[in-house]
Amino acid sequence: MRIFLDxxxxxxxSRGKVINIDDYISFIYKYKDTIDVYANLDVIGSPEKxxxxxxxxxxxxxxxxxxxxxxxxxxxWLQRYIEQGYDYIALGGMAGGTISKTRIIKHLNSVFPNLLxxxxxxxxxxxxxxxxxxxxxxxxxxxxxxDSASWQLRGSAYGLVDVPRTPGKxxxxxxxxxxxxxxxxxxxxxxxxxxxxxxxxxxxxxDSISQYEVSFLKRKTxxxxxxxFMEEYGFTLEExxxxxxxxxxxxxxxxxxxxxxxxxxxxxxxxxxxxxVRALRRKMRQTQLGLDKxxxxxxxxxxxxxxxxxxxLIKLKxxx
Length: 320
Description:
Helices cover about 45% and strands about 15% of the residues. The chain is of the alpha/beta class. It has a domain at about 5-155 and about 250-320: Alpha-Beta Barrel (TIM Barrel), CATH 3.20.20. The strands form 2 sheets. The chain has an 8-stranded parallel sheet with strand order 2-1-10-9-6-5-4-3. Strands 7-8 form a two-stranded antiparallel sheet. Helix 7 (about 150-155) packs antiparallel against helix 12 (about 245-260) and helix 12 (about 245-260) packs across helix 13 (about 275-285). It is globular, with a radius of gyration of 22 Å.
C-alpha cells in the first residue's frame, strides 16, 4: 500500500484556514520513511506563491510533488516545472465540480499533447490528477496516478453505489463506466399524486418503492446482473442497502477493479474514514486483485496536524 500526503490546501482554503508551511514540513519529516509521495503546499489562486513554497520545501531538504492548477493558471508555470526537470507533476483544480467536464477536457486536450507528451504521444513526465474521478478521463489520458474522494462521499453521504452500465457485458472500457444507483433505505421515496398514475402501475404501490427499486423497473434483468456481479466479489445489494460504510467500500473496490483492468494508472483513495480502508482490506483479501492495489491519499488539512490517525494509517500499511 502506498501513502500519498496532500497538503489539503483546497480544503483549508474553502474553510478559511491557513496551513503553516513549517508545520507541514515538520510533519513530513516525522513520517518521511513511510510516506511514498507528498505534494507541495500549493496556494489557491497564486502560482507564484505555490512556486515559492516549492522552493522553500526543497531548501528544507524535501522533494515535494509540484502542483499546477489547471485550467486556472497560465501554462507558463507548468512549462517552468517541465523545463526545471521535474519528472512527476500534479494537475489540480479539477475536483469538486469547480469546473465543467467539457472545460477540463478542453484544457487537458491542450496540455497533454503540447507540453506533457512527446511527438509520439508518450508522456515526458509522470502526471498525477487530483480528484480525477471520471473513468472516461482516466482512460483518455496517460496518467501515472490519480486520486478520488467520491467513493466515500457517494457511498456514505448520498447512499449511492457505483455499478457498470452493462454488468452482463464487461469486455470494453465503456462497459465499466459508472452508473450511480441510489439504494439507501433512507433516501426519498417516489410518491404518486394521482389515482391515474397509481392505476397505470397496478402491480405495486408507488408510495412504497424507493429510488433504488425504481432504478430497475425499466430493465428487468439489470438488477439480477448487478447482484451476480457484486456477489462474484463477495458483496450483496442487501448489505450495501443497509450499511453506509460498506457502500463506500464497494465504490472503492469498483474503482480499483475498473481502473486496474484497463490501465496501469495508480489509484489513490482519498480517505477520511480509515475504518472504511480497513474494511476494504478485508474484502480485497478475498479477491484476485490483491492488497497492493489499495493506495491511500490523506491530507494534512484533514488530519489537522495531529499524528494519531496517521499512525493508524501507517499500521494498516505495515499489516500485510
